[in-house]
Amino acid sequence: MAAAASTISGTSAMASAAVSSSSSSPALSFRILSECSKSKARTSLMKLPHYTVELPMFMPVGTQGTMKGLLPGQVKDAKAQIILGNTYHLGTRPGKDLLNDIGGLHKFMQWDRALLTDSGGFQMGGLFPDLRKISLEQLIARDAPGYAIGGLSGGEEKDKFWPTVHLCTDHLPKNKPRYCMGVGFAVDLVVCCALGVDMFDCVFPTRTARFGCALIDNGQINLKARDFATDFRPIDEKCDCETCKNYTRAYLHTIVTKETVACHLLSMHNIAYQMRLMKNIRESIKEDRFVDFVQDFMACYYKDQSYPQWVIDALAAVNIILKK
Amino acid sequence: MKFIVEHVSKQGGRIGKLTGLRSQPDVVHDTPLSLISTVGGSAPHLTQDVLHLVVGKDSPVCVPAQHFSEHVKVLQSYRRGVAHFSALQGHCVCVTAQDSSKVTPSGYNDKSGVSMWTYRGRQSVSIDKYMELVETMQPDWYEALNDADTDSASSKKRVSKSTAMSMAYLKQCIDHHKVAKGLQGSALFAPLLGGHSEGDRSRWSKSLAEKLEDTSIISGYALLGLHTNGPPTEKLEPESMHNLIKASIDPLPADLPRQAAGMWNPLTVLKLAEHGVDIFDSAFPFLVTERRGALTFPCRLNKTLTDGECSKNDKLEHRNKRLKVCEDNSGTKMCEDNPDTKMMCEEKPKTKMCEDKPKTKMEEEENAKKEDKENQPIREKEATSPYEINLKDKSNVSQLEPLLAGCECYTCKNFTRAYVHHLANVNELLAPVLLMMHNLHHWMDFFTSIREAIKTDRLEDLRSLIESSVLESKEA
Question: Model pTM greater than 0.95?
Fold first, then answer.
């Protein structure tokens, strides 16, 4: 049912990995469609029992068997293909026996696309390269269907974060999906895709929605700000989510953090935003213009090309030089 | 606004057609109907696309002026009215002064205006401010500004202040309405006031014809001043309201619509409908949602059991589950018809329903009064009512049935009680969404039944169906 995932906390210099671009196991089969000619980015298909997911993919988090106030249909409309549940939480409430009686988590929450469950709380070799290496080697030897890079979402510094991801993706087999947990900011997603990551999850889009923040191409806007009181545009004129089709920033400003409807409207938009970002990434890789995509994205995100050093370094490590 | 009374029933109530509205000149709405109550311009918990899974895209909504009293300038810049602003264009809008779903604190109305509470606190709204606000909202119909700060405990002085101030406001509203370009096509409703005094109510209603120079400008009436909004309204019982409603409504011309906003419980709604009230709101289903309840009171006259319940009665292995439902005040009739369950019920000393022979109407009424006064202790200290089940109740933890068997709403067609209980239990935002969808759907079904019952002169039967299920729930 759920894609099995193993954690990685270290590696050792790996002998040349298999050069095949696909892999198969009972629950999951994976096939690379295209690769970026410069960086480690790739776009692939991951076939799961309930759905075939296009990668790289962002997974919104539905910890307790629900996507934070959204109906399953709304999550689908936002183009989500796979969402994350939490076995620890769900194992406690409502519990394993009840879920069995009902016929599984998919039926319980009426989500007919893919579900990934994890149990959270992954601890690990952390940011120490040698420990990561040891752990990686052992895990690869176990031949899991896919690999999860954990222990990196605790707010550690970015310039320690990206080398760890880079190390892991260098040593993990190319023909299996790599899942980096807890990564959700747009810039981080783009960089990690360049580093060869395929899957991400984060509570960020839905959590920030509850604080009144909407995601747009150059960051976030906080709809509580008075600037929006008479701004009759949608959150994003280019966005085709239900929120942007029907609601203005001015209206959202009147209810944000006050009515639950505001949470739902912003969550829907933020998930749709993440999905659109991932789609743009995938399309650009398919057409081998990922490097240009990254360049444009960063230029839009950082005014006056004030790129953070870690972003410059991480991208340079995979042959993408940001123009100044 | 055009209102046509099509049928007046001998058992009480009338069927009407509401049409010719400013924003929907050709749409016809059948009455009695329920407006969709909103908070901050949206149905509670429901985004526009979700709301449209439950109700029609042109259904009437209620927007309290109170919710937009800080947004006059924005609405003026926007220029397309509050429905459009709130992504509810296509729906017609009734603007009331106050929000019927929240208690209006008492004692704050004075010469400077009527007090309205916003997120930021108390605002005193003068007649000029009110009319300016209403104009920007572009309502299809609206209440004149009124001081309705009266309830069963109000002093004579308070009641007379409320009527004096409100008459002054009404006259000023009328004057303003006549010249306001922005209110062309909007219909003005006069308040019906007088606290809990039959004499005052009757005098007020009569004075509307006598004291106003031009009564043709009044398009309808809003029954106010019987409560000060919010949850306490739920506790008002039909029998205690009977004479007061009669006093307010009897002197009125029959051809204009009457509206009664508030968290009235279903039996009181029927009482109001019986007296000729045409328009209600959905504050009660909102109240039920907030306490994680799901409405389950029977509201279909033709069958006492829905299809789902009929088939369950035959399966003995469901006995235990049925008993749980009994305890949960689901309001469904089961034990009377099935000797198997009757036995199970008799084992439990509390449930008397099976042992009782059919009572006379008098006896039932006596019992109902007794029940009310004794104030049944509520299990687990959860607020609830005989019209609903509480989804926080642990007995729902493994219930694989829907909230209400046979219900065709989105929630009941897709999810189980167990899932909604889980959501309520872990405080997830989806719980009130699914419950609001069900409760609003059930409420709309209720009103369809009311119209059917009045059309076929069976309002009394509908009342008695609901009343007996309420009695059973209270005894369980």
Answer: no
